[in-house]
Amino acid sequence: xxxxxxxxxxxxxxxxxxxxxxxxxxxxxxxxxxxxxxxxxxxxxxxxxxxxxxxxxxxxxxxxxxxxxxxxxxxxxxxxxxxxxxxxxxxxxxxxxxxxxxxxxxxxxxxxxxxxxxxxxxxxxxxxxxxxxxxxxxxxxxxxxxxxxxxxxxxxxxxxxxxxxxxxxxxxxxxxxxxxxxxxxxxxxxxxxxxxxxxxxxxxxxxxxxxxxxxxxxxxxxxxxxxxxxxxxxxxxxxxxxxxxxxxxxxxxxxxxxxxxxxxxxxxxxxxxxxxxxxxxxxxxxxxxxxxxxxxxxxxxxxxxxxxxxxxxxxxxxxxxxxxxxxxxxxxxxxxxxxxxxxxxxxxxx
Length: 350
Hints:
CATH superfamily of the largest domain: Class I glutamine amidotransferase (GATase) domain
Strand content: 15-25%
Largest sheet: 9 strands, mixed
CATH class of the largest domain: Alpha Beta
């Protein structure tokens, strides 16, 4: 597509036809010297074709993307007069323990029309390869491993961006189950409301398969009411296996696990190694619904382990939450985590 001279016309654009199959695709660019760059492309289905819908956490991707000098964490209130050269030295975020990231009354929007270096995946990377990058462990490279696992285990799915839930493109009534994964941290009120009001939909949250904090500009209610668990700082930036609490539950069928056993020791997460419970962890709170079944809990220090739970909703739906960003990083390589997740999907998709 490149014309060798650059695009002289500022309004010139190229159009690429989307593949027929829904999923997470990557554009790739490479140089003669071997340098590589890739960036994600979320392709939603023309119409629903599977019983399972999976959400890409593209709002989180954009919030952490600091390309151009800003993210929701770096210069959130606007670009400084002079560019930052060495962030670890120059930014108060790293040098001042009392610094507040969000202390302004106004925040300029963050454009989606930017390169996404944090979402790069090497051309020869496999879903069983370790996630080495600091940001990749909770953004698209980690979510890609969930999708690869679904395909490996023959679970058909339709893939949508979170913004397509917000704008109504994703019609939840057409699906049996919805997966949110890794770090779905930024949700809008319409997104939250649509999931809450969607009748008998069943949900897998892998933070719920991730770290689900559901932050919006104004916080309306705790996500514990929707997912059963909510983030607390205990256990943050650690990694550990889970310990089974209810070994008789159907979730643990064909795993050989019993109450007191550990699972989830294997992990691809290199930023917070140690197991499937970690990076950020969610726990049951006073806002959690009644009737929760406690399946397992992470063995992270200071009682910071993620709580794996399930419960039925009043409208006939079901929720399974794992409460850990690290969980998906264990999914492709930990046999017990894989079997547990398969058990839940097969039950929820009936």
